[in-house]
Amino acid sequence: MLILDTALAKRAAENRPIRVGLVGAGFMGRGLVNQIVNSTPGMDVVAIANRTVPTAVRAYTEAGCEPVEVSTTAEVEAAIANGTPAVLGDAFALLAAENIDVLVDVTGAVEFGARVTVAAIERGLPVVTMNAELDGTVGPLLAERARQAGVVLTGADGDQPGVQANLLRFVKGIGITPLVAGNIKGLQDEYRNPTTQKGFAEKWGQDPYMVTSFADGTKVSFEQAIVANAFGFTVGKRGMYGRDHAGHVDELTGVYDVEELRELGGVVDYVVGAKPGPGIYVLGTHDDPKQQHYLNLYKLGEGPLYSFYTPYHLCHFEVPNTIVRAVDFADAALTPPGAQRVDVVATAKQDLKAGHTLDGLGGYDTYGVAEASPVTRAEKLLPMGVAEGCVLTRDVAKDEVLTYDDVTLPPGRLIDALREEQEKLFAN
User: Which residues of the chain have pLDDT under 50?
Assistant: First the structure.
């Protein structure tokens, strides 16, 4: 990773910064703007599109910048040419600007994020996505479209999936076969909702629906699904193993059945309460007895599983690394090379009645659980990323996994067309 600061220093010295267009200016987006403006020489956030323009203005002013409000692509381009940060409400006018080098999606919205990402790929822009919900729903298709267009579509460093990806690449690079990629959580309660999470959200200035998606397990399911899809892993069971573990992650080497892991080809998982949190871990094997001797000498134990971990994930602080990787090196931090391996399926958070319209991610109606894609396909399970806005055709009991047969889809959505296209593309 140290090559990245050298590349940015060179850009700064030559006064040719990477020009970032940002879509979404919520809690995470504001943090990213501040990080790039004040701590990342060689990179500029040249324009922000957000549904509510004052929120985009806030992102700049909190970072110490004075933006200009624009409305057309020509005005975006003129502002960038003049070195003035631009804000606007139309993401597609921003995407059409010729003088941006990369798009960063920080929306967390599936349908809108899909439209933005498709437009960026068609425009020929690299895309850094912090939208795990979109990635976990149609990421394999979008990645294939990006490859066909000759651009990079990548998840982000700093998010736990990106941190896992970096560690997985390191572990594979030293000859270890990774068999578990894990996420360390502090809380898991499928029945949390925006009311229960309101106080926490207010304390930290976050959206209660987003906070709920972390607490009810939906977010970790999406995060682990995209790791599985990028590295060819699966889940040990519906919902992952998901153990409570108050000890150190190193102790997990004695918890898993190694032969089961080998048979499955590697799994994604999470633990609740482990140390050091909120980091990530990778467990793997080495088949060479000579190297096993060295690993034991280097205090990694006698195997057969060896533990590697990163004790933190720094979210927006690390996203500039992804941006320069994508733009200057065409290197994706995290991207699926082929078909979906794990999906996130919608599960009833409470008893639901026929005729009810499902609310969104982190809401009152559903939570997401990770499931192997062959099961999702065989049982026609409803992906969490398409559940919002669906109308139930029958009563559904609490904790029941929804299927496509249980709902009527809203008409005219891009996400449904993309999901259908993805299923056909990877049918075999």
Answer: none
